[in-house]
Amino acid sequence: MKAIMELPAVDAAIFRAEILPAGQPVVMRGLLRDWPAVRAGRASATDMAAYLRGMDVGALAETMYGPPAIGGHFFYREDLLGLNFERRPARIADTLEQLLAARADPAPPAIYLGSAPLQQAFPEFLRQNILPPLLDAEVVPRIWIGNRVIVQTHFDISDNVAGVIHGRRRFTLFPPEQLPNMYVGPLDFTLAGQPVSLVKLDNPDLGKYPRFSGALAEARSADLEPGDAIYIPYMWWHHVESRDSFNVLVNYWWNDARPWTGSPLEALVHSILSVRDLSPEKRALWAKVFQHYVFEASEEKLAHLTPRQRGILGESSPRLAAFIKDWLARALGRR
Fold first, then answer.
1. 335: pLDDT confidence band, cut at 50, 70 and 90?
2. pLDDT confidence of residue 59
3. Beta carbons within 8 Å of 34's beta carbon, 6+ residues apart
4. In sequence order, which residues have a C-beta less than 8 Å from that of residue 92 and are 6 or more positions away?
């Protein structure tokens, strides 16, 4: 497996001028080494938990719990109709105590507090630990706390900088072009929001999923220590393994799409409904229509219409987005 490219000293200029335009994952060694949180956790998990408890404001966070039998791997049941874990809100302070207690258990349950916004969970943490100015936009940072768990291979509709605060994590990434080789599970019933690969990376069944060997040939991996960070580009598949009995990570998701435009995944689902089951000849025609209006959209193709005449084809804005959503809701309501 290839190694993810590493850079030891990344500043805002390098990130914006070199890393972002390249669209490739990068490990940024030591990016967060001077964070108070990283320094606080260097001694032990107990010290890390004490640092977090000292900032706890009593917030609840969605937490995943799995029995010891799953080996920390949150996944589907065998029939893909259920999950091998449960998800429920819990007080963060209680979760910290559970994680510390579970360290003494030779077969601990899997516990993972995920995606808690820092300004709600630990506002003082947010004030003390500030990401170097890599990003232009204001981004809501989130915290992830758990034990030895595996986050199944998935993609996000966003760019991502993830920084390891305590514990070690192994990241394995696959380019978006590997979609045909990933054997994606259900789009509407997922583990945590985004579609996931059904192939277990630690023991891939290449008899059942033979094309996954092509994905493995393009895979990249890296082990991150406390203070290290990784840039995961938009829609890159990533598999994350927490490798210690107590792990803390902070991440920053951002998307340059306009906030009123909606989700491309929802557009995909609607296309599955309306286009997928047409005859091959008609699908080919609609592929050209999508190419014209969506994937190769340009001002030149609309030059025969004045701005007032363009309607749905007009320049994107919150007002036009509201009109399109209303138009779609009325059209779908008639079906």
1. low
2. 94
3. 227
4. 52, 56, 59, 60, 61, 113, 116, 121, 122, 145
DSSP of 54-85: TT----EEEEEEE-GGGTTB--B-TTSSSBSS
Tally of CB atoms within 10 A around 6: 13
Angle between helices 92-102 and 45-53 (to 10 degrees): 170
Among 254, 275, 302, give the residue marking a domain's end. 254
Examine the domain organization and report whether 166 and 273 are in the same domain.
Answer: no
Exposure on the CB side of residue 87, measured as CA atoms within 13 A: 13
What was the pLDDT predicted at 137?
Answer: 67
- What whole-number distance in Å separates Cα of residue 71 and Cα of residue 147? 11
Q: Please give the helix or strand (H or E) that residue 152 lies within, else none.
A: strand 150-154
Which of 40-44, 50-54, 66-70, 205-209 comes out lowest in average pLDDT? 40-44
pLDDT in tens, 113-146: 999 999 999 999 999 999 988 887 678 899 999 9
Q: Write the single-letter amino acid at 317.
A: S
What pTM value is reported for the model? Answer: 0.93
Residue 161 in tokens: 């900088």
Q: What is the mean pLDDT of residues 177-205?
A: 96
What per-residue confidence (pLDDT) applies to 8? 86
Residue 275 has pLDDT above 70, yes or no: yes
CA distances (Å), origin 50, targets 59, 228, 290: 16, 21, 54
* Domain boundary, last residue among 212, 228, 254: 254
Number of domains in the chain: 2
Distance CA 133, CA 202 (A): 36
Neighbours of 187 (CB within 10 A): 12
Q: Which helix (H) or strand (E) holds 150?
A: strand 150-154
Question: Cα-flanking dihedrals φ and ψ of residue 169, to 5°?
Answer: -135, 140
